[in-house]
Amino acid sequence: MYPKSIQKLIEIFSRFPTVGPRTAGRFVFYLLKLSDGEMNELIAALQGLKKEIKQCSFCFNSFEAADDEQKTGLCAICRDNTRDQALLCIVEKESDLETLEKTKQYRGRYFILGGVNDILKKEGIQNIKAQELKDRMAGAIQEIILALNPTTEGEATVLYLERLLAPYGKKITRLGRGLPVGGELEYADEETLRSALEGRR
Amino acid sequence: MYPKSIQKLIEIFSRFPTVGPRTAGRFVFYLLKLSDGEMNELIAALQGLKKEIKQCSFCFNSFEAADDEQKTGLCAICRDNTRDQALLCIVEKESDLETLEKTKQYRGRYFILGGVNDILKKEGIQNIKAQELKDRMAGAIQEIILALNPTTEGEATVLYLERLLAPYGKKITRLGRGLPVGGELEYADEETLRSALEGRR
After folding, report:
1. How many domains does chain B have?
2. How do the pLDDT tens digits run along chain A, 201 residues long?
3. Is the dihedral of CA B59, B60, B64, B65 positive or negative?
4. What does each C-alpha distance from B20 to A26, B25, B27, B81 come to in angstroms?
5. Which pTM value belongs to this model?
6. Contacts with B39 from chain A: Cβ below 8 Å
7. 8 Å CB contact of B26 and A17
8. Owning domain of residue A160
9. For chain B, which terminal residue's Cβ has fewer other Cβ atoms within 10 angstroms, N or C?
10. Residue A25 and residue B95: Cβ atoms within 8 Å?
11. Same domain, B92 and B171
12. Tell me, what DSSP letter sits at residue A169?
């Protein structure tokens, strides 16, 4: 049996996404080999995380609390008046927002759903910020872009959101489907090819 | 771009074994969702790790510092006088020691090498506690069991250790090779089958 403090940390790391007990063990032995300076760096970064990071009250994106000089509670994207207030792009998670921002192609605002409709789990819909999303509908929004993953869960979430938002009469669109740029026709699956044919221009 | 404190933590987690930047990002967003209590639990466990864990001065195994009432600097295994002092089992890492201990078949002592001879990397041999191992040879040890992984690196380490320890004239053995219990002949590779034939009894 490992010493108690090692077991405790293995247990905590095992709750991290994608981490099982074996990987958690490797993390702990890696940490045991760190210098005091490196360990303190990790602890300080963890302590700073919650203190320095705020969640945007509009889109739920994370942002540096220090940047919010005017105490608006809004992230840099939502504070930016030059962005198109008529567009709202709905993503599952923060990293999807980051990926879209990197393209520099979208100039509207976002809404982070916090989850997808996992049809295999009962609690699936509860993870979605449905009420918060409905609250956003009162504003200047004209078009809602559902930028969810082209997976079963993503599709189920699209259907769920379309029904949820129907009463507000906004235009609802989805990201285009087709062949990924740089991909080869040979390796594309049937569903992607069907979408590529339908979306031809 | 993610806020600075998120980027910093992604950078630190990316140094963990098996973790890339994408997984590190998932860790950080998982942590952002934790309650204050859960975050403090993680920080306390990390702070406790180095304080509460000592490394055995003989075998380099980790042990609870509080267990060392007599301040021997030795882990519970090395402190146990009923264990056979004539046997020394050399393992690569702490989890290998744990795996062997669970079998309850071995009653000697251990030595954690801290690495293997990675023939593809120049620094391979430097990670191995070679001098410390040689220092252990002065004692009552009669047989050295090389319990390294049956991999290229493990084999290279066995050859390296056999040469390193030859001058001390101890008996050097390795773990038996053959079919894993519960495995099927059909799925065994050629090398395993050859070992199984050679080791038949």
Report:
1. 2
2. 788 899 999 999 999 999 999 999 999 999 998 999 999 999 999 999 988 899 999 999 999 988 888 889 999 999 999 999 999 999 999 988 988 888 888 899 999 998 887 777 666 677 789 999 999 998 889 999 998 888 888 888 999 999 999 999 999 998 887 777 777 777 777 777 777 777 776
3. positive
4. 15, 9, 11, 44
5. 0.77
6. 46, 49-50
7. yes
8. 81-176
9. C
10. yes
11. yes
12. T
